[in-house]
Amino acid sequence: MIKRVIWIVVVCALVPLAGFVAGSGVLRATQWLTQEPPRRDGDFAALVAAVGSPVVLLSTSTCPWCERTRQWLRANRVAYRDCVVDRDPYAAGVLRTLRSDSVPQLVTAQSVVVGYDPDLFAALVPRDPATPMEPAAVATSDGLRCAAPEPAPTTH
Known about the structure:
The chain is α+β, with helices and mostly antiparallel strands. It has two domains: 1-33; 39-137, Glutaredoxin. It contains five helices and five strands. The chain has helices at residues 2-34, 45-51, 64-75, 89-97, 118-124, and strands spanning 39-41, 56-59, 81-84, 105-107, 111-114. A five-stranded mixed sheet has the order 1-5-4-2-3, with helices on both faces. It is elongated, with a radius of gyration of 24 Å. It starts with a helix and ends in a 32-residue tail after the last helix.
């Protein structure tokens, strides 16, 4: 009789535990399978040209990882354009063209890095620490935002 009671107690304790473990495993597997890859290669030249910079950062004004990305870009003397999607409708449109809602995203003509990954940034972005950057090429702390490119002046 005591063995049976112990068996019932053990089974009653293990069944919910097994369900919890299986459920969290399914949740993690689902998250892993649906997660965006940290780097996507492709042809992003038109997007980069439209924004007007060889390196484009898609960010929000409140994202701490976006701020760390800005700091990394400044520390490594990378000329870039900061497209702050929660302040600029054009920047939000740029993010939609990538079919993603994650920030930060660092875009060059050949690749997109999703998330903060200094190792991928270093492999991706052109930089030359010996070359001084023009002030206009660097995003400022007030959040230089994307803008629709100005139409070329027409001459008659």
